[in-house]
Design brief:
Elements: E1 4-8, E2 11-15, H1 41-57, H2 64-71, H3 78-81, H4 85-105, H5 113-130, H6 132-140, H7 147-173, H8 182-195, H9 208-222
Antiparallel strand pairs: 1-2
């Protein structure tokens, strides 16, 4: 993974230095339904405000006043909807990981290992680009979670890795991929989606879908697969 990594509960997650992250997040809008149908409109607004605050300032530098001011509420009103500021972060991290995992789970295996891995990577990267502000918080603020909440999020992250690892292992068995260390390859590929949240903007040169397709081809080359046209990397 990109940035500095810390271990906790048997997992890895990146912890970025503030200077590595751009504060120019670009025009990302989070639809209310992103947070789930059982989340109230006010709670949705608080979550969306918290995403912007955490992404720009970091969890610890963000105050409850920062979060509620955007919604036009008093600082104490946050506790009507959430037990703590950490509970807000957990809701964001859990929801973001669940949404991203659902995208990967929806990529059907058609029996072609190469195309399956490409779809997994394209989905992973395009989701992180489309939701780069939420994804930044999900990737870089995990150190602030309580141990029990961190454990839940790390379980979701393990499912990410396992899904991609299974596809790569099958491709290696079938001779589609030539990769000496599958674990390292999987970590490197997942890092493609994680790293872009530091700099991506929706109004930049690449759409989320275009970036996903480009990174999917890079991942296939990393695994030693030929290009779709049969041409080698040279």
């Amino acid at each position: 993974m990109s940035g500095t990594e810390r271990r906790r509960g048997g997992g890895r997650y990146p912890v970025a230095a503030a200077m590595e992250l751009t504060t120019d997040l670009g025009p990302e809008s989070i639809p209310g339904e992103f947070w789930g149908e059982h989340t109230s409109p006010v709670a949705r607004a608080l979550l969306s405000s918290a995403v912007q605050c955490f992404a720009r300032k970091g969890f610890h530098a963000t105050t409850t006043r920062d979060i509620t001011a955007v919604v036009g509420l008093s600082p104490g009103s946050l506790y009507v909807h959430f037990a703590s500021k950490e509970a807000v972060l957990f809701h964001i991290a859990r929801t973001g990981h669940e949404r991203a995992l659902a995208v990967l789970a929806a990529q059907q295996d058609d029996g072609d290992a190469r195309s399956h891995v490409r779809r997994l990577v394209a989905g992973h990267v395009s989701w992180h680009a489309r939701h780069h502000t939420v994804a930044r918080v999900c990737q870089y603020e995990l150190a602030a979670l309580a141990p029990e909440h961190l454990g839940e999020v790390l379980d979701l992250r393990q499912r990410f890795s396992a899904m991609l690892r299974t596809a790569v292992e099958r491709g290696a068995r079938e001779g589609v991929f030539d990769v000496p260390d599958i674990d390292r390859a999987v970590r490197a590929i997942l890092s493609l989606g994680i790293d872009l949240v530091r700099w991506y903007r929706l109004d930049g040169a690449d759409s989320p879908e275009a970036l996903g397709e480009s990174y999917a081809e890079l991942a296939a080359r990393m695994l030693g697969a030929p290009s779709p046209t049969g041409e080698g990397p040279g």
